[in-house]
Specification:
The complex is a heterodimer.
Chain A lengths: L1 H16 L10 H11 L37 E8 L4 E3 L5 E3 H4 L5 E6 L6 H14 L3 H6 L1 E6 L7 H11 L5 E3 L3 H9 L9 E2 L5 E2 L6 E4 L5 E6 L5 H13 L4
Parallel strand pairs in A: 4-5, 5-6
Antiparallel strand pairs in A: 1-10, 2-3, 4-9, 7-8, 9-10
Helix pairs in contact in A: 1-2, 4-8
Chain B lengths: L1 H21 L9 E9 L6 E9 L5 E8 L2 E10 L2 E4 L3 E3 L3 E5 L5 E5 L10 E8 L3 E10 L9
Parallel strand pairs in B: 1-10
Antiparallel strand pairs in B: 1-2, 2-7, 2-8, 3-4, 3-6, 3-9, 4-5, 4-8, 9-10
Classes of the chains: A alpha+beta, B mainly beta.
Pfam families (chain B): PCuAC (PF04314)
Keywords (chain B): Signal
Protein name (chain B): Copper chaperone PCu(A)C
Chain lengths: 248, 150
């Protein structure tokens, strides 16, 4: 597994990791392409102009990334970080939660999923919970793990409040709200989610996001992506760096 | 006495003959084995199930349904682009395998009658179009168990 990580990181490093150095800005496109290739992606990469004047802000639908079975297993450091989505939703206790406001200056992991998901959503939450427990208490307190539902009709605050502590950890924040708001927030960081669709037999087909995104405590930008194959050990290895806003 | 022996041996011979046809002396029947089965300890009233079905026969088969005492509604789900959808069957190719693994296609147990815990076993019956029924025990593993990673 660590081999995969090395491969991905080195392909990123070729053009991107040292992007701060003068004269190395040009390889940005190459680096992005490398990341995209590395994650085994169907990508519509909007490399055109960044949205507005906000540096590093994501243009809408920047990278439509869908995880295949052979996608990367660990960190992908983004060359162009995403602004934190402007999401104001409802937490598991029914209170208003302003993502930008309440996670400002804190290392944050953001994931979009749903509770009627037997596999990847609880797997992801469980892996992060296991990795978090290996941190010193002070770091555990800093780390914000935010789970935003992609199925708000079924995932009420109460439902999320039951599921999230069991799937992950009681310290995790679960958010629900209007689907269109959630979808727009996800899209702003390149996560495509479709609304839950009711089938003729009454079953509901929902979908989860393809990645976990880590936001830096120093810039509040989303700068690292994790695919669904990331293990608890891989999260555990990276978390101490993410907590400082460093590249894993 | 003698007659009795004859009848007995005839029965044995017949049974043996039946058994032979039963296991498919020809190579054109599906021959299925299951391995790597497990269920991650569920979080709520639903659970996933994962296993690999190998077919060493020269004929393909189909997994058409799954039954279990733990749920009256066990579905088979296909996963595409982060969405899972109920399907009617999964192909088990001739001389090939059907892999149900984390992040991909899986069994889905709805409305669990009880919450199985790590260390327990959940018995399921896999129903195939040709090979009939295979009974398999799924050991319940940690919620994040993923043999793909080892």
């Amino acid at each position: 597994m660590s081999d995969d990580k090395t491969v991905v990181q080195s392909s990123v490093a070729e053009g991107g990791k040292d992007g701060g150095r003068p004269g190395r800005r040009a390889p940005l496109i190459i680096a992005t392409a490398a990341i995209v290739a590395a994650i085994g992606v169907t990508a519509a990469v909007g490399l055109g102009s960044p949205a507005g004047d906000t540096p590093g802000a994501a243009s809408p639908a920047v990278a439509e990334v869908s995880g295949g079975s052979d996608n990367t297993k660990a960190a992908t450091v983004l060359d162009r970080p995403f602004a934190k989505p402007d999401l104001v939703l409802t937490d598991t206790k029914g209170r208003t939660f302003d993502l930008r406001e309440q996670t400002k200056g804190k290392p944050t992991l953001l994931y979009f999923g749903y509770t009627h998901c037997p596999d990847v959503c609880p797997l992801t939450m469980s892996n992060i919970a296991i990795a978090r427990k290996q941190l010193p208490q002070a770091d555990q307190d800093k780390l914000q793990v935010v789970f935003v539902t992609t199925d708000p009709e079924r995932d009420t605050a109460a439902e999320l409040g039951k599921w999230l502590p069991a799937a992950g950890d009681p310290s995790f924040t679960g958010l629900t709200g209007d689907f269109s708001v959630i979808q727009a927030g996800a899209r702003s960081i390149g996560i495509g989610i479709d609304p839950p669709k009711k089938e003729k037999d009454g079953s509901v087909v929902s979908m989860h996001g393809a990645q976990v995104i880590a936001f830096s405590p120093t810039t509040d930008q989303g700068y690292v992506l994790y695919g669904e194959d990331t293990t608890a050990d891989q999260y555990a290895a990276d978390l101490p760096k993410l907590i400082k806003g460093e590249n894993p | 006495m003698n007659r009795r022996t004859t009848v007995l041996s005839a029965a044995v011979a017949l049974a043996a003959a039946l058994a032979l046809t039963g296991c498919g002396s020809g190579s054109d029947e599906p021959r299925l084995t299951v391995n790597g089965a497990f269920m991650p300890q569920p979080v709520n009233d639903m659970a996933g199930g994962f296993l690999t079905i190998s077919n060493s026969g020269a004929e393909a088969d189909k997994l058409t349904s799954v039954t279990s005492g733990i749920s009256d509604d066990v579905q088979i789900h296909e996963v595409k682009d982060q969405k899972m959808q109920k399907v009617a069957s999964f192909d088990v190719p001739a001389n090939g395998e059907l892999k149900l693994e984390r992040g991909g296609n899986h069994l889905m147990f709805m409305n669990l009658k009880k919450q199985p815990k790590q260390g327990e076993k959940v018995t399921v019956e896999l129903h195939f179009e040709k090979a009939g029924v295979l009974k398999v025990d799924l050991p319940v593993e940690a919620p994040n168990h993923n043999p793909k990673q080892h």
